[in-house]
């Protein structure tokens, strides 16, 4: 336990001091940390799921509070909580069904178990996003008769109930933890491979001789463009430099290194160039439940320009960026104001900030926000690792990934009651 | 064979690389100055809240994020409080970051602190030297790499000083941090520091560079727009240098300047300029204000209030740079302006306006209160209709109904300001009496500081203060009816200097005044061609006059230093050998000869004798006798030959004529003493007499006075010859 606490503290420190940045890195590290939290957690005989949820929730609370700007942290905490619930549910249904059937013959038992296993696997799949399955409305419909049927079979449980129950229980407690860890592993895998999954869809979206515009730098965008290039698509890229961090310069360098025809433009030239552009492809910091996007500063302007010229505005986002909260929620800290030194050199302007003269307050203020909010109506398409989606479809994806109970992680039971 | 050797050397090099010494830092949790008085009488400076977080946390958080693994916190003033604070904080339980406290009660300067740390033998490699009131977000890697690379090439590169560009105010000749304008000369290619001066005499409007500076370096760039960040990367030699030169007290004034002047050892100091990151040290109230505002304006990101970097309560950044912690109770009609921080659990009444200020935790602010540009710490009560502008209000202060604080006021802990009382601007109010003013001599300043600290230690706890409250009867005229506290009379430097270092902006009349001065200066500069405004420095322009002036200045300084050293030795009964060592080091650093030392020491001995109380000439003579007997060993050490002895006599003559005319009637008698005690030999006296033979009549007064002695000596020597 102490080493887990040390790990948590270490990660908390890094988050607080803004040492880890970027949603993929934070998401991956959060998932890995939670996995070790779960594996170290002792599970009592009764109510193991609740114990695990509590453990994850307490750590998660601290993580979210440490840097509320990194929305991905909260997303991963909620996803892990959701998968614990899912696994618990599927195990419970399997166990109850198993109990009911244990009175029957051995051969049947095996068969039915397998059957149930398939069902639980479906639930796992829904959580872990391994398949490109259309809405889980279907699964819900499938589940309904099952859960209704289960009590019936269990009530008809026979006399050998007691014996198999105890055996089942010990295996179940181990199994739950094991399954949850499996699910988290899958989540980590998903985060790691989201770039490739998104990039796979590149050829469907980028066509021959098109002009693509992007702003700033995003690894997802880079991989996406390169994947299209590898598939022998020939196209040109306009890169807006993305002041004040000018990461567009880096992206341009990378693109040129991979043999793409690249043009660098200033952010303010976007509107002038947009008429020549066929598609805008950008990365995001987070995607909110209403389909709005929190993205690097300057993107709202690009989106408006794209709308004016009816250019499709495509946002690439791994599923870890999908946030179940709405942007009007006060818990969501939408922006981060960074140091003004990214904009201007302190030395040159130090005389403008002499508080010793005048009224004691400086006449020069520098505001350096990190993010923009792009409303959903400006977004044409989201490309996630599960395929392309409309902004209005986001709520549906969220229902797949998260349980409604976990939307509010921060509320402590102590303060809630 | 060759290959083998190569392999061997590679092996021997590798472990050096591999056994990486953890990066260490020395954090001085004491500034060894009195600029934050009266607040620092009760609480150490490093624990004063800066935007609601004790200063030391900023420094420690930076050290930790910069990759320092081991920090030695040197606690001196109020060491108990600092240690208690750190023990309660989470700093001691951080992974990969150890904080060790070193306590001392008798260190009076940074020099003493470093000597003590050297004795402990805890520093094993390059270390960062910083004081606990520095705020920075710079990355050390680059500076550290440069330092290490230089060290590999030249082991004399002992220190890398971090500087930052920041334009000084042309009007007040001070930086935005309220410190004096800094002049540095840097070699633009190697970044070596060649000249450092932060105490410029503006009356002359010129600065003097040593001629050798210009001849030895092909290019020199002289800056006045650099700010010293007081972050130094030092090699372990720095500690031993402090130990060798035990009169070094101040890191900049003595150590840096000493090293720059000293061309015997050849130690070098380099600079590292930071551009995009922030670093500043809080030296006085003005820099407290400036740095606070820089933090609120987020220049120190990520060390800003809404990031929980350490020990600060969760704070949210709202529109227009307004930071608000949780549980703030604010009336609907209260108006909170931009760039304001409101601490946890503070209550704000109706129609109150607050702008550009920092309010601490748990404060209660009434209705119709106006607060502007002020720093209000924790648990302060401000009743209705008060006006506070550009003031610092410490913990537990109460402002009664209608009290007004004018700009620049500092209220120390638990002061109560009476009803409708107006505290005049720049006044400092404390429950403690102002310590008796002492001579503002540097050494004494330190001593004064330490003695006051020990006094204050026991007062600092709450019980004592409450006792004071009960027992003492507070005169009502000082702080109005119901007021509690003493208004300190404005001390050293007087009112003139107060506005420079205060939290309040410089008053407009001062600005106008200073503006006029600078205009005059500019005219002056145009009339006499002192320095072409932008042209290059010409190495040989009007050098002769400068040089003379320089050397004369130097010998005056040298004399003063020797005198100070000797007097200290006499008062503290320091052993003669040590005094000799100290004077020797002075002699080296000022590049003087033995004769100069002898003259200076003799001068100070005489002065000592003169200062010892005496009523008659005879007693004075006795004093001289005793002093000479006691310290003749030192004097003799510097008198190996005749020339030096003559120098002593000449010096004595000069004294009798100028500074200490009390001795003039005693000239012969003292000369006799000197002869008796073998300090001055007869040959010296005789050749002195010969030297004086051709002098003007006015100079011959003492030769004539000493004539009987000379006569006697001559006869004696003749007798000797006859025998």
UniProtKB/TrEMBL annotation, chain A:
Gene Ontology CC, one term: cytosol
Principal localisation: cytoplasm
Native organism taxonomy: Eukaryota, Viridiplantae, Streptophyta, Embryophyta, Tracheophyta
Basic and acidic residues composition bias: residue spans: 160-171
InterPro entries: eIF2B_beta_subunit, IF-2B-related, IF_2B-like_C, NagB/RpiA_transferase-like
PANTHER family: TRANSLATION INITIATION FACTOR EIF-2B SUBUNIT BETA
Keywords: Cytoplasm, Initiation factor, Protein biosynthesis
Species this protein is from: Quillaja saponaria
Protein name: Translation initiation factor eIF2B subunit beta
Quaternary state and interactors: Component of the translation initiation factor 2B (eIF2B) complex which is a heterodecamer of two sets of five different subunits: alpha, beta, gamma, delta and epsilon. Subunits alpha, beta and delta comprise a regulatory subcomplex and subunits epsilon and gamma comprise a catalytic subcomplex. Within the complex, the hexameric regulatory complex resides at the center, with the two heterodimeric catalytic subcomplexes bound on opposite sides.
Subcellular location: Cytoplasm, Cytosol
Record family assignment: Belongs to the eIF-2B alpha/beta/delta subunits family.
Regions crossing the membrane: none
GO molecular function: guanyl-nucleotide exchange factor activity; translation initiation factor activity
Cited Pfam families: IF-2B
Region (Disordered): 147-175
Automatic annotation (TrEMBL), chain B:
A matching Pfam family: W2
InterPro entries according to UniProt: ARM-type_fold, eIF-2B_epsilon_N, eIF2B_epsilon, LbH_EIF2B3/5, NTP_transferase_dom, Nucleotide-diphossugar_trans, Trimer_LpxA-like_sf, W2_domain
Keywords: Cytoplasm, Initiation factor, Protein biosynthesis
Signal sequence, renumbered to the chain: none
A GO molecular-function annotation: translation initiation factor binding
GO CC entries: cytosol; eukaryotic translation initiation factor 2B complex
UniProt key word Cytoplasm: yes
Classification via PROSITE patterns: W2
Assembly behavior: Component of the translation initiation factor 2B (eIF2B) complex which is a heterodecamer of two sets of five different subunits: alpha, beta, gamma, delta and epsilon. Subunits alpha, beta and delta comprise a regulatory subcomplex and subunits epsilon and gamma comprise a catalytic subcomplex. Within the complex, the hexameric regulatory complex resides at the center, with the two heterodimeric catalytic subcomplexes bound on opposite sides.
Name by which UniProt lists this protein: Translation initiation factor eIF2B subunit epsilon
